[in-house]
Amino acid sequence: MSLYGTYDEANIFARIVRGEMPAVKVFEDDQVLAFMDVFPQSKGHALVISKVSKARNLLEAEQQTVAALAAAAQKLAKAAAAALKPDGVVVTQFNGAPAGQTVFHLHFHVIPRYEGEPLGRHGEGMADIEELKALAAKIAAEL
Ligand code: AMP
Asked: Is the CB of 41 under 6 A from ligand 1?
């Protein structure tokens, strides 16, 4: 998948937004949804997506979508920092397969980092869902 193309309504995040696939949610409103990444690169790795935009990536996104997602990413980063006490937080966003994008519905990653703990590989190693639910509840409690 390149940087350019048409939005696929069957992509996994579109299905999560429509409630066709489960997600371990942290928070949502009418614009955005934050949920735990099921292949986390660190403890507390979560994602924020738009619930209304059909942008595949940042280059296609409407300014108001970018603003809503940036605000949600900040909210999530602050809550994750308060809940999990990491030593750092990475906020990333990939555009196009060569850049590392695997799901073509615009999203931001919020990845807590812990001193001395290497980052896990991108999209590998499925998490225990009960553990993700516990982490999501801990983060949500700090919103
Ligand atoms: P990217 O590679 O930037 O497109 O990121 C997509 C992310 O979505 C990866 O980190 C995957 O681990 C994650 N992911 C894929 N499927 C799901 C899912 N069903 N629920 C939660 N996260 C997912």
From this structure: no
The answer, yes or no, to whether any atom of ligand 1 lies below 6 A from the CB of 24, is: no
pLDDT score, position 105? 98
Angle at 47 between CA 65 and CA 28, to 5 degrees: 65
Is 107 considered catalytic here?
yes
Q: Is the pLDDT of residue 120 over 90?
A: no
16-59 confidence digits (pLDDT tens):
999 999 999 999 999 999 999 999 999 999 999 999 999 999 99
Instruction: Report the number of distinct structural domains present in the chain.
Output: 1
Rounded distance from Cα 93 to ligand 1 centre (Å): 12
Report whether residue 11 contacts ligand 1, using a CB cutoff of 6 Å.
no
Question: CA 99 to CA 131: how far, in whole Å?
Answer: 29
| Domain interval for residue 21 | 12-140
